[in-house]
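B., you asked whether I could sanity-check this one before it goes into the benchmark set. Here's the sequence:
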Amino acid sequence: MDVATHALIPYAAALVALRRKGDARWAWAAVFGVAAAAPDLDGLLGGLARRVDALWFLQHRGLSHSLFGAPLFAFALVGALALAARAWPRRLGLFAWQPAFVPLLVLGSWTHLVLDGVTLSGVPLLFPFSSRRFGFEVFPWQVDLLFPIPAAILLLHALGRLPPRRVAQAGALVAILLLALGAGLLAERPADAAHAYPHGLFREWIVVDRAANGTLVAEVDRDGARVDPTWFPESIPPEAAPAINAAESTNAYRGFLLGSYGPMALDAEPAPGGGWIVSFTDAAQRYESLHEPWWVPAEDRGLETFLVRDGVATETRQGW
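And here's what the prediction gave me:
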């Protein structure tokens, strides 16, 4: 979900819920909205996480999108605003630190997980204890048709052109539109697919199933018709098990696993000169990468490859 929607809906809800709290509600509502957007600060760290394998957990929708990590990002952002408020009290006085901010930071950041939990790939709620992703995957990465609306509402409000009452009403309208769109999309989800992921906003899904021979196949379900199939063959010789274990013990693989959300295909083949080439493919993510280059940031996304020799695994292709 886009950052404007992440901020607007919780901010509007807080304005309504805190309406009897007097002047304090303005600061509390603002902190709640800022905390709700804070987990997306990980977008500033994604490049670093890809370059330094030891920081794999800082990738987008990694640590920041967990029950444990989201409040940390919220504390960092609101804490920085609180420090800035000391220097510029007239402009940022709303963010002067209060103990009441603590529960608002935690709960506000968790609203981010709720909204991203209904989009493609979901969120790793239990990270760092588990990399498993949770979500309903009703929408694509973000709802492009709605993004200009919350962005314009917040901009007009920041410029003093839209009073809080109107912001609360507009936030409720955006939430209702999301619910209506979500209900419509759920009604279109293919019922006979093992895995279905939103592909485009209306009536298209990436469907991943296993063929009769066990091979993963991904294709687009468009108005009930399956088109553009892509196959992901697997080959796992028993003697490749130590090489696979070596690859799975690396930070590079942990980063790939954290960023994956679809069924995984595994392939291992002898490497020229000795050793093994081990490849992990997230079928859903790889399919999206191959068929939607305008959105996915890297053509290698969804495919992680290692060269394993003498028990040492070296990443040769990064897919996260």
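One thing to flag: The mean pLDDT is 91. Otherwise nothing jumped out at me.
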